[in-house]
Amino acid sequence: MMKRKVLLRHNWKTKVFVVVLLGFCFSTFLLMEAQYRRIGASSMLPQKPKIAFLFLARNRLPLDLVWDQFFQGENENRFSIYVHSRPGFLLNRLTTRSKYFLDRQVNNSVQIYWGEASMIQAEIILLQHALMDPFNERFAFLSDSCIPLYNFSYTYDYIMSASTSFVDSFADTKEGRYNPKMDPVIPVNDWRKGSQWVILTRKHAEIIVKDEVVFPMFQRHCQRKSLPEFWRDRPVPADNSKEHNCIPDEHYVATLLAHKGLEGELTRRSLTHTSWDISSSKGRERQGWHPVTYKLADATPMLVQSIKDIDNIYYETEYRREWCTSKGKPAPCFLFARKFTRPAAMRLLNMSALGVSKEASSHSLSLMR
Fold it and tell me: Which residues constitute the signal peptide according to the record (predicted)?
């Protein structure tokens, strides 16, 4: 009798344990299922199109802290970063102070030489890497001396609201850089000049990467001069065909897209401001246009504001004035500016003159309305 009572008590405890265990397992199952549903729902949210920021640098990025502030706090599903530096250079904790640039260098970079097609090759390499991400929809080329003028939200909205590429492109009738040997592959009527700091749609980026016609002509017929134009020791020869420095980076993209008949798909201006000056200190034969470099003493809020106030660009060779708009309304012409030294850029950042932080977002976005 005693054994029976002990057995019954034992069976009762066993049943309670089994019920509790089953309840625990069931509740755990329900909890895990809810978590998986949340994860699945979040993964099914539409991925926003991204802007690929493509930096062309000599070595490290001297303005990485300025760009760090620009990207700070933004959802990284709206941008990606690629950097082309000299072969073998690594962006690690010793060479960059920004988490956004860690390991962002491409692994097949080439040595770039001024005035040669190697600059185009570097641009193509950056595009090849960026096109691997199917969510990259815009491709913005930037130099290592470039600063942003607005915060990320304003910049993103400005670029993504346009269905076109932003490519500075105009007829080149004065420079004499066109090599007649390019004809008939590249007719003179297709020859264009413009800033290399373009922003491309995915369609146009793919056209550049797949190009096997125009790029080889630049490689063959654009040879490097010993020195830039404004450093020459002798005048340009009367017969320009004997010395051709096409400056490929200023001609290739605009010429290729004109050659393809795609100028109707472009906003024919750059979003990067460059100030040009002429050097005449060494005599007439050394004159030539070159970009101004802003140093510490130049870096003032007034300078930045003067760039932001530009609302139109005049192209003398085409007698064309480009009024700048965004979403069909008047807008500043430039989102970026160069060339800035690190001390100059850091001074502007410390003075809050660039408007790249979150605090400036409400003012910048109001400009778009």
Answer: none
